[in-house]
Amino acid sequence: MKKPQRDSGESARRLSRRAMLLGTVQLGIVGVLGWRMQSMQVEQADQFRLLAEENRINIRLIPPARGLIFDRNGLPLAENEQNYRVVMVREDAGDVEETLQRLTQLVDIPQDTLDRAVEEMNRRSPFVPVTIADRLKWEDVAKININAPALPGITAEVGLSRHYALGEDIAHVVGYVGPVSDYDLSRIDDQDPLLQIPKFQIGKTGVENKLEHSLRGAAGTKRIEVNALGRVMRELDRQEGTPGKDIQLTLDARLQAYAQARMDGESAGAVVIDLEDGDLRAIASAPAFNPNLFVRGISVKDWTDLNENIYRPLAAKAAQGTYPPGSTFKMVTALAALEEGVISPEETVYCPGHTDVADIRFHCWKRAGHGNINFHESLKQSCDCYYYEICQRVGIDKIAEMARKLGLGAKHDLPISAVASGLAPDKAWKREVRGEDWRIGDTVNASIGQGYVLTSPLQLAIMTARIATGRIVTPRLVKSIDGIEEPTGLGESLGLNENILRRMRQSMNDVSNHRRGTAYRSRIIADGMRMAGKTGTSQVRRITAEERARGVTRNADLPWERRDHALFVSFAPVENPRFAVAVVVEHGGGGSTAAAPIARDIMLQALYDGDPPLEAYPSADRDRIAEQQERINARLASVKQAQDRA
Amino acid sequence: MSYLEYNAKYVPTGFRKLIYLNWPVILLITAVACFGFLMLYSVAGGSMNPWMEPQVKRFGLGMALMLVVAMVPIWFWRNVAGVAFGLSLLLLLAVEFFGAVGMGAQRWIDLGFMRLQPSELTKITLVMFLAAYYDWLPPNKTSRPFWVLLPVLFILIPTYMVLRQPDLGTAILLLLGGSTVMFLAGVHWAYFATVIAAGVGGIVAVFESRGTTWQLLKDYQFRRIDTFIDPANDPLGAGYHITQAKIALGSGGLTGRGFMQGTQSRLNFLPEKHTDFIFTTLAEEFGFVGAAALLTLYILIIVFCVVSAITNRDRFASLLTLGVATTFFLFFAVNMAMVTGLAPVVGVPLPLVSYGGSAMLVLLVAFGLVQSAHVHKPR
C-alpha cells in the first residue's frame, strides 16, 4: 500500500508556476484572437460589409419600353407587342418529361424547340426559368393557365417584342430591330449597360437604327438578393427606367402602302415630298421584305430567298439606289444654260437626229431629228441634240453646280440606312477620282443624264421640289420626337431667275399636258390638279454603231437586267404645287410608259388624300384604273386595320 | 487506493456535495451553450429544427452526465483512468476496421442509439491517463528520459491513429493537450526546447529544400501545403470557405447586423454554418460585441478552472483540471484562429456552441471530472 501522494513541496510549487505561465500564454493567445476580431470587425468592417453586399446583391437591369414610331396621322408603324412565352423551372416541375408531354398536348410546340429547352434546363441550375416556347397565342396562354395544376413549374409570361403591323410597306424606312450581336458591340462605342442584356433588341437598320438613342430609353434597375447558388431570394428595391421616346415620321402610311402596292411586281423606288414643308410623305421601294422576320430571327431559307432575289428586296431603292437620271436631268442642264445666259429660251437649235462632238456621234432618241427646236419644245419632246448643244456652251462645271443647287450629288441627312449621295460630276471630280482629264464627250453624255451622273429617286424628288417652288426644299422624315416638332424643310429661295423657272415649269407642264408631250398619256385631267413632269429613260448598256445601224433592239426583246431604267419626276398641281413625286423603275423600259403612270397614280393619291375620283384619270384608262384600284385597296387592308385601331 | 487514504473526512458527502460544485463554471458553460442555441436557431432560418432542439436535448443529457460524474469521488476516476484510456485506444482501433465514413473521414462507430466518436473520447481519457501517470510517478523521476519517453508514446499512439482517419484537428488537440499535461507535471524545459527546435528546424529544412536538388517533398505536396497555409491561393476551392467566413465575420462590424439578420449564413455563402463555422454567424449577427462576449465567457471558464487547479493540493486533480481546461482552450482557440484566417482550416468545432453530439457530451463529461476534482478537494 502506497502512501497517498500528497502534492507538496517543490513539485506542487512548480505545477502552480507552470499553470500560471500556461494561463498567461493562453490569455496572450486570446488577446491575439481578440485583436484579430477587433481589426476585422471594427477597423475593416466597411470593407467586409461591402464584400458581403456584393455577395448578396445583384443588380439587374430592367429594359425600358422602346419608343414607338408613328406615321404623320398617328398610325403605329412600330409597336411593342405583348409577347407570350412559356417558361419552365426544372426544380418545380418534378418529372420534366411528363410535364412537357402534357404541355405539348395543349400547345403545339415543335420538337426541336423542346429539345433545345430541355438541353438548356439540364445545363443550368434547377431553379433558373428557361423559356420553352415564344410568341404564343393568347388562347394558348389561356389553356396553360387553366391547366396550371397539371403543369407544375410551368408559367406563361409576358414580355414586349417589336412588331411592325404594316410589315413590308414600311420596312425600308423604319427598318427593324434585332438582338444585339458581338459585331454590333464591336462597331458602336456605347457604354449603355442595356446592351449587355442577352438578346436585348436594338435597331439594326432604318429609323430604328439611326434614332436608336431616342427610341431606346434608359434602363431601370432592380436590386435583388441572391444566395450562394445565385437563386433569387427577393427583390430589394426597383428603380424604373425611362421609356424610349416616341417618334412621329412625316410618312403617310396609307400613301406609302399605296405606293408599295402600286409598284408591286416591279423593281422600283418612289418618293413623295410635300412642297410646303419638305415632309417626305412616302419613300417606297419595291419589292420589300417583312421586317418582322428579322425581329424573330430570320430563317436561313428566308434570308437566302431575300438575298438571291434579283430584284433585291432588301435594298431601299428610293434612297439608296442611284441611277443615271436620263432626260430628267435635262432640267438641270437647261437651267444652268439659261441662268448663265448662254442661250435664250426662244433661241433654236437644229436637231438632225445626231450631233458630232470631237469625232464621236451622239444620237437623239428620234432618229429623224426634231429640226429647229427651242427650249420649250426640247423639254416637251425631250430632244437630246438641243442639250448636246447647250451643255457645250455652258460647260460641265456650271451644270454640276446647278445639279448640286437642286439637291443632286449630295447626301441628304435623313435617318435612313445608307442614304446615297449620288454623283454630279465635274472636271475636278474626274481628275481627282479617275485621274483623267474631263473630255467634252463626258459633258455631252452628262447633259442628258447619262455617263457619270447618278441620282437617287429621293434626290430627283428634291430636285423637282426645288424647281417647283424655287426654294431650297430640304427633306424631313422625322416630324416630331417625344412630341417636340422638328424644324420643317422649307428653306430660303434658290436665287434663280423666277422668269426662267416659270418657263421651266411651263415646259414641264406641257410634258404631261400637251398632246405632243412625252407623258401626255399619264396626265391628270382634273381641273386644278394638273401635273407637270419630265420623263427619263436611261440606258444601262452601250448601243454599238452596228446595233444602231440595224435598228436599236426594243427593250421588250432584251433580258431584264439590260433594259433601260424608266424614270419620271413630277409636281402638282401645276398652279399651286403641293407635292413632288419621283419614280424610278429599274429596267422598266421607257419613262413615259413604265414610270409616269405610277407617278401619276401616286400623285393623285397624295392630292386627294387617298380617294381620287376616276374622273381625274384620262377617260381611256378609267376601266383599267378602277380595276387596279380595287386590287390595291384589297392590299391596303392592314392600313385600314391600323386606322381602326388608332 | 482507498477512500480513506484521501483524507476523506474532510471531503463533503451526500447532498452537501452540491454546495461545493464549481457553480461559476456551470453557469458559464450554460451561458456559452445558450449562445450556441441562439445561433443554431438563427442559422436554421428561425427554427428549432433541425439543429437547436437536438442540441438542447443533448445539452440536458450532458449536464446530467456532468453532475453524475461530479458526484463520483475523484479518486475513483483516477483509478479507472488507465482502463478508460485503454478502452479509447481499442475503440480507435475499432473505428479503423468497422468505422463509418462521414465527411470523407472514418470517424465514428454507430452504436445504434448514438454515433460514438472515439477520437473525441480520447481527448479526455488521454488527459486523464497522463494526469494519473504523473500522480503515480514520483516527482523526482519526472524528467528522466525513460519516464519522459513513456508518456510521449502514450500521446503519439492515439495521435497517429486519429491522423490516419484522417482528422488533423483532433490530432493537433491530442498532441498539444498531452504535451501540456507533461509540461505542467514538471518535465524539464530542455525536452520541450529540443522538440520545438527540432520541429522548427525540420519545417525550415523542408521549405528550404524546395526547388533544390535535395528537395524533401514532391512538388504537388508543396502545392498542397501552400493551399493549406494560404487558402487565398485557391479562391474557389479551399479558399472559398475561409474567404466567405472572413466576409461574414468582418461584415458584422461592432454591433452586428442583429439576430437573424446575417445575410452570409442565411444565403448559404457560409460553409458548415452550423458546425465548425458557427462562430462566423455569431460574429456577423452580434458583431464584435457578441464575439468578444463569447470570448470572455470562454476565458472565465479557463480562469475558474486554473484557480480551482492551483488551490487543489491533489496532484491528479490539478493536472486533470488543467488538462481539461487546456483541451477546452485549444478547442476554441484553434476554431477561432481558423475562422478568422489566422490558422489553416483543420476542422475543429467551437466547444459547446457548434452542433454535434459526441463533442458536447465528451466536453461536459470532462467538466464533470473537473467538478469532481473541485468537489472532492481535500479541505
Overall description:
The complex is a heterodimer of chains A (646) and B (379). Chain A is 41% helix and 20% strand. Chain A has 26 helices and 23 strands. Mean pLDDT of chain A is 88; it is low at 1-6. In chain B, a hairpin with a 4-residue loop joins β2 (105-110) and β3. In chain B, α4 crosses α6 (145-163). The two termini of chain B are 19 Å apart. The model of chain B has no long low-confidence stretch (mean pLDDT 86). At the A-B interface, α1 and α2 of A face α7, α10, α11, α12 and α13 of B.
Short structural summary:
The complex is a heterodimer of chains A (646) and B (379). Chain A is of the alpha+beta class. Chain A has 26 helices and 23 strands.
Write the layout of secondary structure elements.
The complex is a heterodimer of chains A (646) and B (379).
Chain A: H1 9-43, H2 45-56, E1 57-62, E2 69-70, E3 76-89, H3 90-93, H4 96-106, H5 111-123, E4 129-136, H6 138-146, E5 154-163, H7 171-174, E6 177-179, H8 182-187, E7 201-203, H9 206-210, H10 212-216, E8 220-226, E9 232-239, E10 247-249, H11 253-262, E11 268-274, E12 280-286, H12 291-296, H13 300-308, H14 317-320, H15 330-340, E13 349-351, E14 354-357, E15 360-363, E16 371-373, H16 375-381, H17 384-394, H18 396-405, H19 427-434, H20 440-447, H21 457-469, E17 471-473, E18 478-481, E19 484-485, E20 490-493, H22 498-513, E21 532-538, H23 545-550, E22 565-572, E23 579-585, H24 591-607, H25 622-635, H26 637-645
Parallel strand pairs in A: 2-10
Antiparallel strand pairs in A: 1-8, 2-3, 3-4, 3-5, 6-7, 8-9, 10-18, 11-12, 11-23, 13-16, 14-15, 17-20, 18-19, 21-22, 22-23
Helix pairs in contact in A: 11-24, 15-17, 15-18, 16-22, 17-20
Chain B: H1 16-19, H2 23-43, H3 52-71, H4 74-98, E1 100-102, E2 105-110, E3 115-116, H5 118-136, H6 145-163, H7 168-185, H8 189-208, H9 219-229, H10 238-251, H11 263-266, H12 278-311, H13 315-339, H14 357-375
Antiparallel strand pairs in B: 1-2, 2-3
The greatest interface between two protein chains, and residues involved on each side, is: A-B, 46 and 57 residues
Largest sheet of chain B: 3 strands, antiparallel
What structural class do the secondary elements of chain B suggest? mainly alpha
> How far from one another are the termini of chain A?
114 Å
Order of secondary-structure elements of chain B: HHHHEEEHHHHHHHHHH
Number of strands of chain B: 3
Number of helices of chain A: 26
